[in-house]
What we know:
10 strands; single chain; alpha/beta; 2 helices
Amino acid sequence: MQTERRGVLNEIKGHTTGFALAFFLMFVLTFVFLAATDSLPNNLNDSSLDTAVVTNTEPDQASPITQNGKGELPVRVVSKKIGLDSTISNPNSTDVGVLDNALLKGGVRYPASAPLGVDGTVLLFGHSSYLPIVKNQNYKAFDGIQNLKEGDTISVYSGTTEYRYSVKGVRLATTDDIVELTAVGQHLALVTCDSFGSKSDRFVLTADLEGTYSVN
């Protein structure tokens, strides 16, 4: 009787182990499939906007507000050299969830940064992903900005005007680095991150205003 009982227990144990291994294998395969098809949840304990620490060189100066002629909101950013052409949204909230959701639709102007046409730095965030298959192409919105060189041109558009900037430099940064929002003069900063990789994987591009041109 004891021999039969041990046999039954061993059989149950064998089935349990096989089930656990099958479940684990199915989990791994499902995760790989979701990653390849860009279907993973957007927030995997990593906020894409945690990839930059933002400061202002004049902290006592109030953040500019785009109202009543005090600057213009960006709606598009273009760099023909790298094929960059992304819409820009302008959320009013600095809530991480709001900003991450906006990034799914293209580039995002950080609300505390300057608008176009006034002294300060326009800070634009955008996703970057080099996965071979990406369903939402906005995960590739800022792909390739690291390939821009000093003197290259980036254009940021409002509804009426092209603001043309000259690249000053691009650097690979970590989460501990600071993106300075320079308050004197008119400047542009692009920050990109790979939401499927390390939080430290990001590039910071800085540029200075070169000129403005009517698009009407």
